[in-house]
Design a protein that fits this description.
The complex is a heterodimer of chains A (292) and B (91). Chain A is α+β, with helices and mostly antiparallel strands. Chain A contains eight helices and nine strands. In chain A, the strands form two sheets. Chain A has a five-stranded antiparallel β-sheet. A three-stranded antiparallel β-sheet of chain A has the order 6-4-8, with no helix packed on it. Chain B has 91 residues and is mostly beta strands. Chain B is elongated. Chain B starts with 5 loop residues before the first strand and ends with a strand. The chains are: A alpha+beta (292), B mainly beta (91). The interface between A and B is medium-sized, with 24 and 25 residues.
Chain lengths: 292, 91
Amino acid sequence: MTGDLPLLTTSQVATFVARGFLPLPGVVPDDLNAAASDELGRIMSTWGSPDRPFAPSSGQTFAEIYPEGSAIGEVLRHLPVAGALQSLLGPDPVFDHDFVHHKPAGDPFGQYLHQDAMVDPSLAFDVQLFYFPHEVLAGGGGTGFVPGTHLRRVHETDVGRYVHMAGEQQWEGPAGSVVLFHQGLWHRGMPNPSDRDRLMYKIRLNPTAPQVRHWDMSDLDTMQNGPDDHLFARFRLDSVAAVLRNREPWLGEADYRLELANRAALWRYLTGDDEFDVDYYLTRTEGHESLT
Amino acid sequence: MDATTDRQQVLFLYLEHSNLDGRVVAWTFHDGSGEASDLEGSPPYKSGTAALQDGWRLIQASPVPQRIPGAERVTGRLEHEFLFERIVPAP
């Protein structure tokens, strides 16, 4: 990736930290969506065979995968997409894996709610890019996901018992939409009762260096708050903390406070600012720890 | 329960805190009779107590969480799970 990409704003990255996803609706143009759909069809029909076009290997650099001539490569390097990826992952991510998810019209089957890969306790995170080359209408088989679940340490379908959660969303949006997921976001493939097949391409990318301050820094100083931004004392409505305070419908008060502390810890990692806090939770505990 | 004439329905309710009066934040329904469909849309009850008042029997509740020293802020599964049952005629 290069230094000339359109990067995310501080508010967008803070929203990603708070909710675990960031939508880029209709960001890929129609002609490229058509070419990418054709390529995804060829990938599906040759999956696992030597004939699969542009098959990447885990660990390959982002710059190497899907080289010139690949429509998927054009999507991934489309400036708004590449800029968003660089903002969250840094300049040199590597390929983890990808897959083409095809939900035929009328498919009644859905997946159990799950978190991808394996329980992961680190602050560093992968990005999973979901690309929808076609328009997805409401209830048309778009991916289901639960905002704000990304920092919870669960493993794969351990959460499959949960069939309905307050605030769960199902993707719907125009053709050429990209949605970036934090690796930990709980999600599931949904039935497709519509009369149109639904195609989706997913790719997972790993960072290779600390994910510190890779987005557009022009508004960080304005929005960044100190540990004194405290909802039960003095607080701002235009700070990073204000964005991180977003509360999802499934969160009770006890869960919510723990998530605020976990979001604050992730923001410290992303900014390298060890004094950042939301509502004083980390600061208070650290003060106690310094005394004993 | 008579297995020749009865079937069990089970309802998992996840509440916002450990009190049965708490708001329902997630739910799952299974019907041993195979007659009822899934419970889409809004939560079937506002609280665990509301389920009791509608005739469900509480058969299991999560213990109150005890945070693990050194990992007090780790979150994971939904912690306030209440399991209800109702016996219905077999089809």
